[in-house]
Design brief:
The chain has about 210 residues and is an alpha/beta fold. It contains 7 helices and 6 strands, in the order E-E-H-H-H-E-H-E-H-E-H-E-H. The protein has a 6-stranded mixed sheet. It holds the Pfam family Ribosomal_L4.
Length: about 210
């Protein structure tokens, strides 16, 4: 039986809740999580590094000097990679694609494995909810820091509530995402997972098949 601390809307402890076994009761599969996290990190690489090769740099239309009789080595173009200002040989190009395909079933299993491990280590917390008639970073920061003591955390929302997202957007070390958009890489980058109570059903619906 895995339990998590529950906090009320004021950020005060309000007891414990038993977490669903099908979400938080899995064994930690380190190899699987490692594979998925590396793939997700790779998929975020933009691949925009680019250098000019000898066909793209300026100049080089004229042979630097005649072929014979000067005592110098022969050259045909100033755009050669061995010249200063010439093209780059074997440099990065935008043709490189770092994307890796991860089966949905594998992604789900890795995510639940990370959630389970965090729950076992008491890093999963449940929050009754955050209410704001308008965006308030100050209010959001005061409440979340009462819960996780100024540590890093990910707030799991049942849906995309504009006021909540705007309230938490500028708080250092805190990110807010919908339950359906969670992934193993982002979870591992935060110490705590703070789940709004209404999000538990959304997690189960999305990731438990």
């Amino acid at each position: 039986m895995i339990k998590a601390l529950v906090f009320d809307k004021k950020g005060e402890k309000a007891g414990e809740i038993e977490l669903p076994k099908e979400i938080f009761g899995l064994d930690f599969n380190a190899d699987l999580v490692h594979q998925v996290v590396l793939s997700q990190a790779s998929n975020r690489r933009q691949g925009t590094a680019k250098v000019k090769d000898r066909g793209e740099v300026r100049g080089g239309g004229k042979k630097p000097w005649r072929q014979k009789g000067t005592g110098r080595a022969r050259h045909g173009s100033r755009r050669s990679p061995i010249w200063v200002g010439g093209g780059v040989a074997f440099g990065p190009t935008t043709e490189k694609d770092y994307k890796k395909i991860i089966p949905k079933k594998i992604r789900r299993k890795a995510l639940l494995s990370v959630l389970s491990e965090k729950a076992r280590n008491k890093f999963v917390l449940v929050w009754d909810g955050f209410e704001a008639e308008k965006p308030s970073t100050k209010k959001a920061a005061n409440l979340i820091n009462k819960i996780i003591k100024n540590d890093s955390g990910m707030l799991i929302l049942p849906g995309m509530d504009k006021n909540t997202v705007l309230s938490f957007r500028n708080i250092k070390k805190i990110s807010a995402v919908q339950a359906k958009d969670m992934n193993a890489l982002d979870l591992l980058n935060k110490k705590y997972v703070v789940i709004l109570k209404d999000s538990l059903e959304g997690i189960k619906k999305t990731f438990v098949k």
